[in-house]
Amino acid sequence: VRTLKIGLLGCGVVGGGFVRLLASDRERIASRYGLDIEVTRILVRDLDRLRPGVDPKLLTRSAIEVIDRECDVVVELIGGTASASCFIRRAIDLGRDVVTANKALLAERGPEIFAAAAKRGVGVGFEASICGAIPIIRALQRGLAGDTIERITGILNGTCNYILTRMERGLSFDDALSAAQEKGFAEADPTLDIEGIDAAQKLQILAELAFDAPVRRQTVTGIRAIRTADIESAVRRGKTIRLIAEAQRVPGGVELCVEPREIATDDALARIVDENNAVQIRGRAAGELLLVGKGAGSLPTATAVLSDVMEIGSRRSARATAVAVA
Ligand SMILES: NC(=O)c1ccc[n+]([C@@H]2O[C@H](COP(=O)([O-])OP(=O)(O)OC[C@H]3O[C@@H](n4cnc5c(N)ncnc54)[C@H](OP(=O)(O)O)[C@@H]3O)[C@@H](O)[C@H]2O)c1
Fold it and tell me: Ligand 1 atom closest to Cα of 46?
């Protein structure tokens, strides 16, 4: 069994979930995959906050202590872009592999981070940054690598989907938004969600992975203008409204569109309710695939983080074995 040391940045919703998930699955992973994953240090802002299941001795307020201290993988779960990008760059420069759930950072600085990682010969795992528990990055990078993707259509923002499906049940937009905020789905400032920007950022990342072609056109419309009456009228006609994100191959590139759409109630995407996400992929040879699941939340998102960590661990083990054989 090989030990994989993790420097963890952030112990909030996802970071705390990661620590708890690892505690429950560490033995299974060690016996099945030959990997003993150990968190060596955890960066937080507030040392006094109660964190059930987290060893307080591991907590520190110093990022340097986490990144520079001996570790194999730095897992970034603090969110935001300024500090997160400095910490990730430092980790890469020190030769650490990196795992992040930070979609905003990848949308802003992805190419720069991937270039630095490639130059230093380290990996960057980002499965958790899009659609939480749904393994969409892996599906596009590996599972469907043997096909030409024609189109991706999805419900990529759980907050908007929660609001729209609550409005279907008669709530006003404002009340549905407040309910989403109370449940912790929406940000205190939910502009990125309801203006469609969050979905557009995710779509852009998926399109880069799936199409590797220039963006010819991009349109983004959120759900702020949708009223309960619009949904009631759609339902009377056997339809409903969902915020749909779609990337489509067109001659010479790809077109990206995020917009509220009326869809038939028997459409697969109409059946996606509350904060769930879905991604429908059309492959030239494979035909239609549909992935559905929890797009956010503590443990669901933590599974994606842990899977990335395990993949990096397996790659490291394979490299070490190859060197030993040589
Ligand atoms: N929540 C989800 O369901 C979800 C789903 C997919 C992706 N994500 C992404 O995952 C990342 C983390 O989200 P989250 O919901 O877990 O956030 P969160 O609950 O706010 O947790 C952030 C953690 O990072 C720490 N932190 C933040 N800034 C820091 C700084 N400058 N220095 C030291 N520590 C700092 C906080 O410390 P304190 O605890 O001391 O405040 C906290 O432990 C984000 O990039 C988010 O977009 C989240």
Answer: 40
Report the C-alpha gap between 253 and 248 in whole angstroms: 9
Catalytic entry in 5, 183, 202, 239: 202
Q: Which residues pair with 98 in a beta bridge?
A: 74, 124
pLDDT in the model for residue 197: 92
Residue 138 CA to residue 231 CA, distance in Å, equals: 35
CB atoms within 10 A of CB 80: 11
How many other C-beta atoms can be found within 10 angstroms of the C-beta atom of residue 230?
16
Query: 121: left (phi > 0), else alpha (psi -120 to 50), else beta?
Result: left
**pTM assigned to the model:** 0.93
Give the helix/strand (H/E) hosting 36: strand 35-43
Which of 14, 108, 113 is the pocket-test mutation for ligand 1 (most atoms within 8 Å of CB)?
14
**Is the Cα torsion angle 84, 85, 86, 91 positive or negative in sign?**
positive
Judge whether 202 counts as a catalytic residue.
yes
The residue written with tokens 């705390």 in the block is 16
- Which residue's alpha carbon is at the smallest distance from atom 41 of ligand 1? 45
Q: Which atom of ligand 1 is nearest to the CA of 15?
A: 16
Q: How far is the C-alpha of 118 from the C-alpha of 55, rounded, in Å? A: 34
- Mean pLDDT (10-residue bins), the chain, 326 residues: 97 96 98 97 97 96 96 96 97 98 91 96 96 96 95 96 95 94 78 94 93 93 96 95 97 96 96 96 97 93 98 89 76
